[in-house]
Specification:
- The protein has 23 helices and 14 strands.
Length: 549
């Protein structure tokens, strides 16, 4: 009885060899130095900010080197699969323009190295597992969950490492004939990898982010194929896929660093060269006086859906994440303001080794800057697109008032230093609501008058201005001089400087009077340029606003 007999019993329908798959998935015809990267999410949850960082690193590396960026769906853990997760992943990639060169979605395969869904590659994995059994590097394990739990208790009491290794690998040395017969008798089993490692020895490894790392060699006989569905575990599937798909660089979270000795050993068992690994740092956030890992349960900004719902421009999110990808990105962006983000020369050595700090305030600043540089028509289009999905009432209003809305969005925009009012599209409504009668009429009013608070004084100033001074044909200089005239007439200084020099001679200054007019029209004391607001509103709307002042 040989290992091949055992392998044939376990996999009677597997007729191909690993050499057949080598021919089916040949080396890619790419230029020297081209990188083949992949985003390989598990559909057991939704896209989070850590995924986004990894996608960007993969995307940029492929673009930098004229390589290939592909998407692989790692769906072997069917028990934890979340409905809609795959659609969410594809939608996020599409929304941010990070579309892979190769992928599989809804039955469509793009690329020559698929299937790109692991559950569809079962026969391939089983061919590779069969090969390991044949060469004596894998074996069936008949231990039950109860057996393994009992063994763990013994290890705990003995104060030794827990796990399936060495003398604790009970099925490792079962004779081939016995294993053969137990399978024939219908016993349940998993397939384990037979490790040749020594935990007491150090395994030196060069991570592209952390540099030279020394870890204990792997000596665990880990499961590589599950018993219930014949699908591989992550450890084994990624080895097969990354080799056959000719992946050159693997980007994954630093929590996978301890698994490197196992993964390298798996590659060596087949005589394959392992890809280079980039282990990304944890994403951190400030929480009061402390800094902690961002949490998918506690922090809404951890999930990528948050940014679309809030209406952040996709460029802003990408730029913000790129600043934590590499420490020199902001410097590069300053020097190359009009370049595409993927023209940046990513370097793993420029990544943080102790956690990447993601700051929403920084995102807001980046986003304000990006929105401020857009044309008002572009802001309108993106605002409408957002509102159509998340605020249908506002979408209806700005659709009916398209040109009016564009004029509002253009206030103080086309100038050397444009206003930076909006961090995202969900903020715009709350900052310009007073410009729309549909919103103003039903909005609860809180007139934020500042220095001038006497109701009669406010009423007289507003009434006098609109009856005797206001003319919608006035240019800005004439308009402001008339407000100065009104101020002087009511005992306020024409200039702020004049008031500061002799405060006892005046009730206040022209700025106080302007604030009264601003609040009377909008209810807000802080708004964009008042002249532009009044010009856009027009005389009829303005006079309606002040009727009850």
């Amino acid at each position: 009885m040989t290992n091949k007999d055992l392998a044939d019993l376990i996999f009677p329908n597997i007729t191909k060899t690993i050499e057949d798959y080598e021919k089916e998935y040949p080396e890619r015809n790419l230029k020297e130095g081209a990188r083949v990267t992949r985003f390989a999410p598990s559909p057991t949850g939704f896209m989070h900010i850590g995924n986004m960082m990894q996608v960007l690193i993969n995307f940029v590396q492929a673009k930098n080197t004229n390589g290939v960026f592909y998407l692989r769906n790692e769906d072997t853990d069917k028990s934890r699969e979340v409905e809609g997760a795959v659609d969410m992943i594809m939608n996020v990639l599409d929304f941010y323009g990070l579309n892979p060169d190769e992928y599989e979605y809804k039955g469509k395969i793009v690329g020559n190295y698929g299937p790109y869904i692991q559950s569809e590659r079962k026969e391939i994995y089983q061919t590779f597992v069969k090969h390991l059994i044949e060469i004596g590097r894998a074996y069936p394990c008949f231990c039950t969950k109860e057996d393994l739990e009992k063994q763990r208790e013994i290890q705990d009491k003995s104060k030794v490492r827990t796990g399936y290794y060495g003398r604790y690998a009970k099925c490792r040395n079962i004779p081939v004939e016995e294993a053969y017969n137990r399978i024939k008798n219908g016993e349940s089993y998993v397939i384990r990898f037979k490790s040749l490692g020594n935990f007491e020895k150090k395994f030196p490894f060069d991570d592209l982010v952390k540099g030279r790392v020394e870890l204990p060699e792997n000596d665990m006989d880990v499961p590589i194929m599950k018993s219930n569905d014949g699908l591989p575990t992550y450890h084994f599937a990624h080895l097969v896929d990354d080799h056959l798909m000719r992946t050159t660089h693997v980007v994954r979270g630093e929590e996978w660093l301890p698994s490197v000795p196992l993964h390298i050993e798996l590659f060596k068992a087949f005589g394959y060269k392992a890809p280079k690994y980039i282990h990304t740092p944890l994403i951190m956030k400030k929480d009061g006086d402390t800094v902690r890992k961002i949490s998918k349960r506690k922090d809404p900004e951890a999930l990528m859906g948050y940014y679309e719902k809030m209406g952040y421009p996709k460029e802003a999110v990408i730029e913000s994440v790129m600043t934590i990808v590499n420490s020199n990105y902001e410097e590069w962006r300053t020097a190359h303001p009009d370049a595409k983000f993927y023209e940046f020369n990513f370097s793993p050595k420029k990544m943080s080794t102790s956690g990447a700090f993601f700051d929403l305030d920084k995102l807001d600043n980046i986003s304000k800057n990006i929105i401020s540089k857009k044309k008002a028509t572009e802001v309108y289009d993106e605002l409408l697109k957002w509102a159509t999905k998340y605020d249908t009432e506002f979408a209806d209003i700005i659709t009916k008032n398209k040109e009016y809305t564009i004029e509002i969005l253009n206030i103080e925009r086309e100038q050397k230093k444009p206003r930076k009012d909006y961090a995202n599209y969900s903020e715009i409504k709350e900052k310009i609501w007073y410009m729309f009668d549909e919103l103003f009429d039903k909005h609860e009013k809180d007139y934020k008058y500042q220095s001038i608070t006497d109701a009669d004084e406010i009423r007289n100033l507003v009434k006098t201005y609109f009856e005797e001074y206001y003319d919608e044909k006035d240019d800005k200089d004439v308009w402001f001089n008339k407000i100065k005239d009104l101020s002087q007439r009511f005992g306020y200084a024409r200039e702020v400087k004049e008031y500061k020099e002799n405060p006892d001679n005046f009730k206040g200054h022209v700025g106080d009077v302007s604030t009264v007019l601003r609040v009377a029209i909008t209810t807000e004391s802080m708004t964009p340029d008042l002249y532009e607001i009044m010009r856009i509103m027009g005389s009829n709307r303005l006079k309606n606003r002040i009727e009850n002042i």
